[in-house]
Every structure is written in C-alpha cells, then in structure tokens.
C-alpha cells in the first residue's frame, strides 16, 4: 500500500486530553456563533419557491409510509431530491406549516456543516502548517467566519434552499470521513464516507463533484502522486463514483435533465457568458458582503464583448489555480475547490430561470475563507515578527478574527431582517438589482395587502419584459372591472407562454371573462384548447361539458363528462362527475341511461341530494311513478325541507290516484317555497281534480 506523504501529528495521553478540551471549546464557539448569527431569522415567511416545495407539496403531508416523501413531485425545487423532501416531511409531521420549525432545522443543518468544515480544515492544516502555527486555531477561524458569513443567508433563510445546505453538510461529512480514513484506512470511516455521499446525491445534484475534490485532496495532502492515491484508495473512489448511477436515476426527475425540462430555454453559450460577471459578483460579495440579492433574474442576451473584462478575470483566476496546483499545491487545492464546487450550476448546466444565486457559493465560499485566513495569518505573522513578537502583539490575530466574526455576524443579522416579509425581501431586489420578475412578485404582496393600484403599477412595469406578469395583470384588471383590458393581457400571456405551468388556469379565467363579454364562441375555443393541452384534466372536460350543455349541445356535453370520468381512474370526485353526466343525459333526453348513471352515483353516496334530485327528474320523464315515489321519500328523509322533493312525491302519488296524499305534499311544497310555480299549479290541479271527483261521487245514485 502506498504510504501517506506525511504522518499525522503525535498525540500523547496528556496532550490528547488537553486537545479534547480545546476541541470542545472550538465546537461550542462555532455553535454559539451560528445561533447568534441566525437568532432573529425564525419568523421569515415562506417565499417564492417555498410555496411549491413546501406549502403546496402534498408528498410531505405524511411521513409514513416513506414512499410518499421519498417521491417528491416533478417540476418542483425538490424534484429528484428525495432526502431534502423527506426533511420537509419531518418538519411537517412535527409542526405542520408553522414556519419556525423549518427555520430551526435549516439553522441546525448550517451549524452542523460548520462543525464538519472545522474538522476538514483542521485535519488538512495540521498536514500543511507547522505545529507552532496552531492549525487548530486557524481552522476555528475559518469555521467561525464561514458560519456567520452573510453570503450564506440565502441557503439558510430561504427555506427551500435547504437542498443546498443539506447537500453541503453531506459533502463536508464525506470529506471529513475520507480524511479520517487516511489514519484508519479500513474501518468505519470508509462506511461513513460512502453513506454520506449517497445521502448528498439524494439531496442535490452538485454532490457529483465530490470524488474530484477528494482525489485532488488526497494527492495534495496525503499521497505523493495520483497513482499512489489511486492505488491506496481505489475502492473508496469506485464506491463514491458509483453514486453517479444514483445521480443519473434521480436527475431525470429534475427539470435540468428531464425530457420536459424548463418551460423557457437559454443556450449554453448565452448562459456561460452570463456566468462570468456572476462569478465576479460572488467574489466581491465574499470579501464585501453588502447589497445581497435574493433573485438575480434570468440570463440576459449577452455577447462576449459585453462580458470580456469579467471573463478575462475569471480566466486569469483559473490559470493561477492551475499554476498553483503545480507550484503551490496546498494553495492551488483551494482554488480548484472553488471552481469545482461552483461548476455544476455556474457553467456546465444552463438554468434558464435563474442567472445567478448566492446559495451557489455555499461550498465555494469555503475556499475563499480558508485562503483569506491563511493569507491574513501569514501577513499578521510577518508584521508581528517585525514588531518583535511581544505579548501584546500576539493578540492581534485573535482580535482581527473576532472583529471579522462580529462584523460578518452583524451583517447576517441585518440580512435576516430583510427576510421578515415577502414585501421587504422583494423590495431589496428592486433596490439593488431591479428586474421584471421582482416587479411581478412584489405585486402579489401589494395585492394581498389591498394596495391594488400599487400592485397594478408593478405589473404594468413588468409586463413588457416578463410575459408571466400578464396573467396576474389580466386577473387584476378583470377584478377592477376592466374586463376587456384583462382579456387582452390574458390573451397575450397564453400566446407568449403556451407551455407555462399556469397556462390552463389563465385559459380558464380567459374563458370566463370572454363569457362575460358575450364572446361565447371564443370562450368555447379556450375551453377546447384546455382539454387539448391537458386531456387528463378532469375539470377541463367538465367546464367544456357545461359550456356545451348551455348551448344545448347535450351529446357533446355527454362526451366531455365521459372523458372526465375516463380521466379519473382513482375515483377522485366520481360522485359529482356521475351527477353531472346524469344531468346532461336528462337534458339531452336520454333518461333511461341517466337513471342508470344516477343510481351508480347514489351507490357511491346514498345520501347525495344533488344526484337524487336529478334522478327524480329522469324517473318523472320515464313515467316510472312507483320508483319516483320511493326516491322522493328518500330525498325527503334526508332533506325534509326540500320543496321540490315534496312536489315530486305529490306527482308520483297523484299519478297513482292517491289525491289526498298528493294534495298534502303539494301543499307542503308551496308552504316551504311559495315561489315554486310548479307546486302551486299542481296543488290547484289536484284540488280541482279531487273536488270534481268528490262531486261526481255525490251525484252518483245509491245502489
């Protein structure tokens, strides 16, 4: 077996005890710093993708059986990320949609990641720094700065982005266990590394870069060559790389790799060009985390001329990293860490819905923090050496670290306050990086606050550049009474965004507005378009069936109701579908068939008043008065104040020459509903027939 490049530091019994004590203090300091930095973040609401990932996610509503939370819905932020979805299910099981519990778990995950980071950096620095340099304190400084850094707030405060922080935790745990295995090659640490890697892949796709970072870490800090590292650790490498098979299986469920994908597209080249200024922004925010942005918008149509200064800087940094890997591997490794962990979302995979995101820096920030701390340590030691190294000067480094942690923690606390309401969060986007999507989202909060005029102002600003804004703009205009203006906006939305997730809802609202304008033909065309787009959409068939029935196309209505039933294999909502089908069958004159359908409906729910009412009409049309009497009595037993039921029972009784009983029920129907014209007419007729019958009997000679 290949030997390690450098053996681990010796640890005698007394020193080991002292080390354990200081280690515990370090861990406590990290925990306290993390809790302090996020102490004011527990009240932040669900925002943006939280609605799809958590609030509207039915798969997290039950924790058991695990098949539900481990199968997150497609086309959502948790698609292909079953472990993240399971964590949301745990939150839901403990507190429903109480937002505080979700924040607590996010903070806990972040602090655990910081503890794992401390372990990783400490063991690496103990192999690169001399013992008198106190590598443990340098590692503690890195972990403290990272855990309170404001750039990480996006991964902690934005609840959906637990996918990023949880993946980061498993990433660091895998590295930590793999590094521990340098000292104990065979044993539990290998198993821990493999398990953590699998968990990371089940959390977010970026985990696939881990084997590359680990191989480079082994080569840089533990083995004299790649071949030596591979010879010693090939089983671990193959086990971690085998996780890519799981990645392929899960990735097809995400919009990044699924056939359906995103509902908008961007070329790889355009996306790649957008990443150059984004990376420069990330670097700036890492050093000076002011002006953080929640949503950077979508990729812009840039050319190389637009981004050449940023591209040149990024290219220079990549070149320096390559040179450093050859000349100064201990520094080059961290440069490679930065670019490798950032690569999946910032170069390789085009994301048309999001040009940049600060959460992507969750792991890359580690490299910047470590390099900054090591550089600061070297500069400080140089200054102290020139100053003579007095006792007072030795406090300079701890003071600088403490100052940095306090200032960064204060920045995080300030950033947390911006997450307190959706309105305040989106306002920061408009203040710092305004774009059409931000105008659209802030309009929702103004609408919910009753500030309709302000909401409309933002939607009108967004609509020319962001077609998605036309849907809420159209809805708001219709609500304000401008139906024609609303129709125009909705028509533009469905024309420009035919594949949008909400296009069916938009077409439904458009059809309703067209009906209000008297444009029945156009409304019908929209309803037909809905069932063409989504043939399994039950309500689409029902709405179209109702429209056809209103136009007396009963055969067409029957066909749509049958299609709705055929699209409903799980019997969800079967009763109203059967009732509706029976109703259009009656209206179309197919009473015998309607009776069969309605009896099936009553088999589903024998107490259904709606189904039995329609059945009474069908039985009356078929002159099946004995059955009409039975069904009328059943309806009266469940709805004794139903005037129409009494009227129908009266008809059934009168048809069987039971006039006294018929008069009684006709009178009851009129009492219950004096406006029921048919009951009044039937009562008058029954009384007249009974009177004439009694008169005829009185004139009849005695036998």
Overview of the structural elements:
- The chain is an all-alpha fold and 703 residues long.
- It has 32 helices and no strands.
- Helix 1 packs antiparallel against helix 4.
- The chain is elongated, with a radius of gyration of 36 Å.
- It starts with 12 loop residues before the first helix and ends with a helix.
Mean pLDDT over all positions: 88
**Number of alpha- plus pi-helical segments:** 32
Helix amount, in percent? over 70%
| Structural Rg | 36 Å
Instruction: Tell me how many strands there are.
Output: 0
Strand percentage lies at: under 5%
Structure classification:
mainly alpha
Task: Outline the low-pLDDT stretches.
Answer: 7-18, 699-703
- Distance separating the two termini: 127 Å
Shape: elongated
Major sheet attributes:
none
In short:
The protein has helices spanning 13-37, 50-55, 82-95, 99-128, 135-148, 153-157, 162-183, 188-201, 210-221, 226-241, 243-251, 268-287, 304-327, 329-348, 364-387, 396-418, 422-432, 436-448, 452-462, 470-479, 483-496, 503-516, 520-533, 538-550, 554-566, 574-587, 591-604, 609-621, 625-638, 643-655, 659-672, 677-699. By secondary structure, the chain is an all-alpha fold.
Characteristic terms for this protein:
single chain; 703 residues; mainly alpha; 32 helices; 0% strand; elongated; disordered C terminus
Secondary structure layout:
Blueprint lengths: L12 H25 L12 H6 L26 H14 L3 H30 L6 H14 L4 H5 L4 H22 L4 H14 L8 H12 L4 H16 L1 H9 L16 H20 L16 H24 L1 H20 L15 H24 L8 H23 L3 H11 L3 H13 L3 H11 L7 H10 L3 H14 L6 H14 L3 H14 L4 H13 L3 H13 L7 H14 L3 H14 L4 H13 L3 H14 L4 H13 L3 H14 L4 H23 L4
Helix pairs in contact: 1-4, 1-5, 3-4, 4-5, 4-7, 5-15, 5-16, 7-8, 9-10, 9-14, 12-13, 13-14, 14-15, 17-18, 18-19, 19-20, 20-21, 21-22, 22-23, 23-24, 24-25, 24-26, 25-26, 26-27, 26-28, 27-28, 28-29, 28-30, 29-30, 30-31, 30-32, 31-32
């Amino acid at each position: 077996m290949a030997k390690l490049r450098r053996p681990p530091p010796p640890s005698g019994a007394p020193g080991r005890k002292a080390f354990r004590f200081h280690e515990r203090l370090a861990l406590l300091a990290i925990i306290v710093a993390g809790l302090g930095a996020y102490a004011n973040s527990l009240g932040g609401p669900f925002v943006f993708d939280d609605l799809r990932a958590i609030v509207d996610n039915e798969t997290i509503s039950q924790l058991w059986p695990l098949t539900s939370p481990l199968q997150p819905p497609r086309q959502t932020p948790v698609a292909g990320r079953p472990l993240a979805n399971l964590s949301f299910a745990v939150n839901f099981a403990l507190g429903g949609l109480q937002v505080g519990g979700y924040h607590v778990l996010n903070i806990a995950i972040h602090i655990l990641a910081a503890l794992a980071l401390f372990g990783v950096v400490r063991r690496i620095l103990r192999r690169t720094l001399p013992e008198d340099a106190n590598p443990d304190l340098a590692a503690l400084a890195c972990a403290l700065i990272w855990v309170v850094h404001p750039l990480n707030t996006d991964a902690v405060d934005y609840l959906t982005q637990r996918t990023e922080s949880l993946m980061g935790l498993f990433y660091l745990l895998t590295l930590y266990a793999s590094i521990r295995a340098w000292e104990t090659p065979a044993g539990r640490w290998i198993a821990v590394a493999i398990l953590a890697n699998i968990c990371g892949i089940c959390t977010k796709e970026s985990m696939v870069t881990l084997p590359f970072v680990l191989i480079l870490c082994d080569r840089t800090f533990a083995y004299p060559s790649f071949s030596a590292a591979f010879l010693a650790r090939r089983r671990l490498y193959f086990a971690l790389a085998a996780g890519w098979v799981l990645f392929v299986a899960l990735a097809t469920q995400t919009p990044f790799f699924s056939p359906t994908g995103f509902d908008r597209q961007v070329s790889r080249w355009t996306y790649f060009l957008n990443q150059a200024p984004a990376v420069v922004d990330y670097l700036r925010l890492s050093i000076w985390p002011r002006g953080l942005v929640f949503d950077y918008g979508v990729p812009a149509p840039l050319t190389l001329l637009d981004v050449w200064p940023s591209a040149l800087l990024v290219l220079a940094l990549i070149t320096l990293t390559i040179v450093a890997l050859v000349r100064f591997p201990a520094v080059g490794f961290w440069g490679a860490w930065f670019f490798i962990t950032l690569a999946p979302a910032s170069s390789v995979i085009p994301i048309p819905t999001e040009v940049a995101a600060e959460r992507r820096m969750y792991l890359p920030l580690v490299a910047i923090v470590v390099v900054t701390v090591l550089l600061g340590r070297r500069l400080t030691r140089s200054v102290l050496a020139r100053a003579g190294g007095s006792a007072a000067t030795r406090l300079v480094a701890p003071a600088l670290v403490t100052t940095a942690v306090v200032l960064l923690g204060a920045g995080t606390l300030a950033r947390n306050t911006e997450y307190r309401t959706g309105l305040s969060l989106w306002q920061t986007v408009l203040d710092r990086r305004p774009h059409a999507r931000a105008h659209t989202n802030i309009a929702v909060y103004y609408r919910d606050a009753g500030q309709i005029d302000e909401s409309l102002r933002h939607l009108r600003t967004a609509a020319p550049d962001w077609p998605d804004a036309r849907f809420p703009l159209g809805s708001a205009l219709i609500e304000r009474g401008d139906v024609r203006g609303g129709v125009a906006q909705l028509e533009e939305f469905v024309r420009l965004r035919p594949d949008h997730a909400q296009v069916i809802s938009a077409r439904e609202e458009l059809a309703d507005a067209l009906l209000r304008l008297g444009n029945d033909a156009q409304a019908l065309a929209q309803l037909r378009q809905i069932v063409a787009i989504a043939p399994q959409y039950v309500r689409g068939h029902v709405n179209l069936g109702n429209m056809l029935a209103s136009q007396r196309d009963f055969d067409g209505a029957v066909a749509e109701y049958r299609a709705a039933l055929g699209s409903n294999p799980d019997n969800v909502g079967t009763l109203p579908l059967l009732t509706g089908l029976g109703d259009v069958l009656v209206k179309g004159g197919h009473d015998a068939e309607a009776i069969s359908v309605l009896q099936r409906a009553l088999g589903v729910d024998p107490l259904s008043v709606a189904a039995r009412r329609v059945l009474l009409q069908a039985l009356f049309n078929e002159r099946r008065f004995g059955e009409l009497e039975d069904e009328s009595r059943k309806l009266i037993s469940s709805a004794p104040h139903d005037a129409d039921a009494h009227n129908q029972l009266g008809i059934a009784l009168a048809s069987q020459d039971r006039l006294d009983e018929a008069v009684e029920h006709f009178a009851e129907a009129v009492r219950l509903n004096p406006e029921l014209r048919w009951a009044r007419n039937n009562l008058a007729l029954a009384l007249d027939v009974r009177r004439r019958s009694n008169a005829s009997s009185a004139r009849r000679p005695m036998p």
